[in-house]
Amino acid sequence: MGNSSSLHLQQEDVQAIQDETGFTPQQIERLYSRFSSLDKAGKSHLTREDFLRIPELAINPLGDRIVHAFFYESKNGEEDKVDFKDFVRVLAHFRPIKKNQEKNKLNTRMEKLHFAFRMYDIDGDDKISKEELLAVLTMMVGQNICPEQLLSIAERTIIEADTDRDNLISFEEFAKVLERTDVEQKMSIRFLS
Ligand code: CA
Ligand code: CA
Question: Whole-model pTM above 0.70?
Fold first, then answer.
């Protein structure tokens, strides 16, 4: 409706995306308009440069890590391209959790924790090192805290989380630290509502 774009979503695609992510058809249509407007080349996929044009990501200290997550989640076999389904799949991690939605799994606590873990695991080896923690902390706080303090925060965090004493934080250790944190709330962004 009112969409002058020549690109249109197929009804079966909408259904498949709805089943996987829990977005409503109206939300999927709106996300598709957003996706199409970012897709400057009109090739039905987004590149890293396309993401860098999103103001919310440009000003987010973790923007670079979030953009990385879009490419990490990409399931279309091409590492440097994000198609519409990849795009929606990543955004689904930020959907607030509502009751009676067990069938839509992308926004469960475990999925959100995995998503957050991958933000820190820069080299993708499934462990968070002190250097990775420090790099992400630096992105988050910028110049507000001196490097020595940040280093001591990173070291203390590793010591507290690292129960098997390998100087790295595994996903299990990460999840344990966040056991009492309201991840569901913190990892929910109320967009499109
Ligand atoms: Ca790592
Ligand atoms: Ca460990």
Answer: no
Return the higher-pLDDT residue of 143 and 71. 71
- The better pLDDT of the pair 66, 170 is held by 170
State phi, psi for 170 to the nearest 5 degrees.
Answer: -85, 170
- Give the chain's end-to-end CA distance (angstroms, integer): 19
H/E run at residue 169: strand 169-170
Q: How far is CA 155 from the centre of its chain?
A: 25
Judge whether 20 and 92 are in contact, CB under 8 Å: yes
Which ligand neighbours the alpha carbon of 174 most closely? 2
Tell which CATH classification among 3.30.10.20, 1.10.238.10, 3.40.640.10, 3.40.30.10 matches the domain 109-193. Answer: 1.10.238.10
Token readout for 99 is 């009751």
Q: Is the dihedral of CA 83, 89, 92, 98 positive or negative?
A: positive
Structure tokens at 35: 């996706």
Q: Quick one: which H or E segment has residue 160? A: helix 147-161
| Ligand nearest to the Cα of 127, by number | 1
Cα-to-centroid distance, 185 and ligand 1 (Å): 26
CA of 132 to the centre of ligand 1 (A): 7
